[in-house]
Each structure stands twice: as structure tokens, then as C-alpha cells.
Amino acid sequence: MWPYPKVIAHRGGGTLSPENTLAAMQCGLDYGFAAVEFDVMLSKDGIPVLMHDPEFGRTIAGAGSVAASLAAELQEMDAGRWFSDKFTGEPVPTYEQVVRFCRNHSIWMNVEIKPAPGYEQDTGRVVAEMTTALFADVGVTDLAHLPLFSSFEFDALMAAKHAAPNIPRGFLMDEMKSDWRAQMQELAACAVHTNHKYLTPGMAKQIKDAGYGLFCYTVNTPERAREILSWGVDAFCTDRIDLIDADF
Ligand code: G3P
Ligand code: MG
User: Where does this protein have coiled-coil stretches (predicted)?
Assistant: First the structure.
């Protein structure tokens, strides 16, 4: 039984706000979403911050990288202007700030551990340790009130497993790996997170028959959402929070 919401706002507010910012979380809320996915990476000084790309140039103007920047420097950078003038000055938030915001607003979180290359284990460990501290008041069986980790990086999830075995893990695979069953077992993961573009009804059945949750990214039309749900998919994230209702 899937204990989490079915429809999740991707990167906070999908394509309606600057991804992975507090403004994005607020945008998701404004559209009625109380479930978000976001990406977490480590700064130079080992502070988890919300960011998708390891290198600047897209959401942060100029050259540079997250792993070479202090958290205090990142928090001074503009992560909103690339999206529109309205969001100019929107800072890069820390993971801790976003968890506190989400918990204050009863927003459930899918925390994607997104390490910069070479920082897989450190990122998994630090995010897991911080999550344990930030959710110390939530019982380990109260899954609906704990976040769900996910990552494309096996080593990051293994480190998270060692540091916080009670925070559930989903293994992200763009296309399903041939040895997915063995990797899921080693991770003690509860869910497969996969690209809906490559999912087939047969593969969905195999995953469900194996007893795992099944989460798809990133589903942006109601028609496609209905189709994959009919295959047994438990949940999906979407960029189009304006087209797909939270209670879809
Ligand atoms: O977690 C699902 C999805 O966010 C994975 O891809 O690149 O958008 O982080 P990406
Ligand atoms: Mg992501």
C-alpha cells in the first residue's frame, strides 16, 4: 500500500515558478499541492541546498559550481531572475529552510538526493543525518509524515541507508536497469522511481508484483497520467500543476 500522495509538484512548483526555491514551494501550495519533489546538493562547506544542476549557467547566472561555493555564498545568489523579473532576488534555499517551510505547511516531501559528481556518499550521508534530526519527533512507522528519499546514485542511497535506515528510499532509474531487483534489495528500497517515457505495462506489473511502490516522473498531461495510473503506477510528479489537480 502506497502511504504517500499520488500527485507531486516537481521541483516545488513545476514550470510555474523558479524550481527548487521557497517561492516554488509556495506556488505549489497556491495550486493546492501539499506534496513536492525537490533536488538537494551539498555546498563546498557541506551544507545541503536545493539545486538541480551542479554547474551554474542555467538557474544561477555566470560560471561556477555548487560544490565550489559556500552555502552563505549560494544563499546570496539569485535563483529566480532566470525565470522572470517577478522572482528576481529569490535565493537558493538550504534544505533545512525548505524542510521547515514544508513542515509548517504540512507539505509532504520527496527529497531527491542529487550529488555533484564525486560527492555521492557525502551527500547521501549528510542529507540523511540532517533529515533524521529534522524529523526526530516523527515515529518511524508514521510514513506519511516522513520524507521519501530518492536518487539516481546508488552510492548516495546506500550512504543514506547507513545513516538513516528508517527513512524510506526510492531508487531512480531513467530506464529500468537489468539488475534492478538486486539493486533494490541491496538498498532495501521501497519504491522504483522511473521515467514514464520508458515504462511499459509489463514492466509496471513486474515492479508491482515484486511488492514495490512505483513512482513516475515527469508526467505533464492528464491523459498520460490516467494511462500510467491504469498500469498500477502509485504516484507521479508533474510540472503542470496548472493542468493536473492535486487530487487527480
Ligand atoms: O525525482 C524525479 C525527477 O526529478 C528526476 O529528474 O532531473 O528532474 O531531477 P530531475
Ligand atoms: Mg528531481
Answer: none
